[in-house]
Amino acid sequence: MPEATGTQLTRQSQELTIFHDVAKALTSSLDLDSILQTIMEKMAEYFRPDTWSLLMVDEEHDELYFAIAVGDAAEALKNVRLKVGEGIAGWVAKHGQQLIVPDVEADPRFAKRIDETTKWETRSIICVPLRSKLRVLGVIQLVNVEMKQFSEQEVFFLQSLCDYAAIAIENARWVERIQELTITDDCTGLYNARHLYKTLDTEVYRSARFGYEFSVLFIDLDHFKAVNDTHGHLIGSKLLAEIGYLIKAQLRLIDFAYRYGGDEFVVLLPQTTKDSALVVARRLRDALRASSFCREEGLNLNVRASIGLATYPHDARTAHDIIRQADEMMYLVKNTSRDNIARGAEVAVRPQTSDLRPQTSDLRPRTSLFNRGYSSCFVAFLLPASRG
């Protein structure tokens, strides 16, 4: 009897130590990976399974994927997915109830294809859901645990650790959501100006290090004030949201779109030369020309934009200057033709008359720029007006 009592005291002491370590991880860090790693390591230390894993629920695809897997089969599990309801882990995710299966061969819910994929032999499984309110976030799975010593006390302890893991996941998702809100424009769903400068600084550093070019488009809607004055600010906000969607739809996955403020938008095009950026600018201009907005509100609004283009490192070498140059190019269009694109050129040559709108003097853009005190020789080109 004394030996049994001593063993129980040792286990209880170990449980208290693990609870302390996990609680410390939860309260001292917002790094989800670090917290979950601590919880999984403590589970392994206490239960000593052959392998163990954390499967997360992908709600969009109704599947489980291995977020953490430890053991000989870990590498093979990286690309394995289970349908919710498939296998023991899938059953637990679907029903939100824990399962302790001493002999998987005797359980019809066991999915043999996982063992076939990993070349692993599963004898027993302990599976516990990670629950948050009324939904299952994931499943913790311990494989080949010594079942003889697995009592109700161990079940309670395991469930408590899983509750800690669920709290960590839910907290991390809320933090991620809050971070998204701080960099997202409420009206359009695009990134905001705060995030623009952070991203630009990173892009300048990356492009300087690897010798890349990148381009920036500065977009200002023409006569947007008239929309607000005529139809009200609610329609104006709806129009901005629809235009934000249109801009994003014209871009690649690696591109970024921002609402800079008011009726101004910025597009960041990583690893994009000036000529390639001009293709994107024309596509955006043409998409605006071909679109009508706020049709659900019974309107048929047509909107045009003045677009300025600048490219790193030819036009500027800092985040602030690249925005300033693109902004200056936009104002050249705004103050002359509107509904067009202006871009900088690295060579100080006189533009051909065909490069400008008929009513625009080629001297006005150059004088405007030089009077602003730019240190480099910088020439603006307005694209020819469309006669369609």
Description:
With 388 residues, the chain is an alpha+beta fold. It has two domains: 2-182, GAF domain (Beta-Lactamase, 2-Layer Sandwich), CATH 3.30.450.40; 191-382, Reverse transcriptase/Diguanylate cyclase domain (Alpha-Beta Plaits). 46% of the residues lie in helices and 20% in strands. It is built from twelve helices and 13 strands. The strands form two sheets. Strands 7-9-10-8-11-12-13 form a seven-stranded mixed β-sheet, with helices on both faces. It has a six-stranded antiparallel β-sheet with strand order 3-2-1-6-5-4, with helices on both faces. A hairpin with a 4-residue loop joins strand 1 and strand 2. Helix 8 (224-231) packs across helix 9 (233-249). The protein is elongated, with a radius of gyration of 30 Å. The protein starts with a helix and ends in a 6-residue tail after the last strand.
The assigned structural class equals: alpha+beta
State the fourth-level CATH superfamily of the largest domain. Answer: Reverse transcriptase/Diguanylate cyclase domain
Order of helices and strands: HHEEHEHEHEEHEHEHHEEHEHEHE
Beta percentage is 15-25%
The poorly predicted ranges are 346-379
Give the biggest sheet.
7 strands, mixed
Task: Give the spatial strand order of the biggest sheet.
Answer: 7-9-10-8-11-12-13
Tally of helical runs: 12
How many strand units? 13
Average of per-residue pLDDT values: 82
Q: Rough shape?
A: elongated
In the CATH scheme, the class of the largest domain would be Alpha Beta
Helical fraction: 40-55%
Radius of gyration: 30 Å
Q: Determine the N-to-C terminus distance.
A: 97 Å
Query: From the 3D coordinates, which CATH architecture of the largest domain would you assign?
Result: 2-Layer Sandwich
